Amino acid sequence: MMSQGHKYRLIGLTGPNGAGKGEAAEILKAQGYASFSLSDVIRDKLQEEGKAASRDNMIEKGNALRRQFGPDILARLIMDRVRGKAVIDSIRNASEVEYLRARGGFVLIAVDAPVETRFERVRARGRDESAQTLEQFVRKEAEEKGGDAGAQQLDKVMAMADITLINDGSLDDLRRKLEELL
Fold first, then answer.
1. Domain tally, the chain
2. Residues 6+ apart with CB under 8 A from 74
3. Is residue 4 part of a domain?
4. pLDDT digit string (tens) for 93-122?
């Protein structure tokens, strides 16, 4: 088990769709971390507008917020909710990482898995993911990887990670890997 006096006050999670970031957040939540997702900020905004939280809408709205209010807006808005130690999921822009690092006690973990594994996980969760085939999934993912400062920059953010965790096994494997890494 992770010690209660863990040195990280903020643990950030990044990675592609279906890699296991949400599962990693749940494991950390069970260890006493409050759990937040930058995607929740976007879902809240879409709900206010009466729009579905589809993957396409999420990407479009997140990018619109970044362009209107600055590329670190999602991190700023989520930090308004954070009190104490927390895990923050769905970091997808370099400015979000920089903002969170400036808070101190922050570590960024990139969670990844083979694309075929991620595609199967995404299909199993049954959300509107805008991709019915592996090829569509890969094309949609390309939109998240290399955007400008006002968009998703997943490749850049993953390169900024302090730790990379390959989540290609069971939930117990993920739990063990997280405990070993931290």
1. 1
2. 38, 41, 42, 62, 65, 66, 93, 96
3. no
4. 999 999 999 998 999 999 999 999 999 998
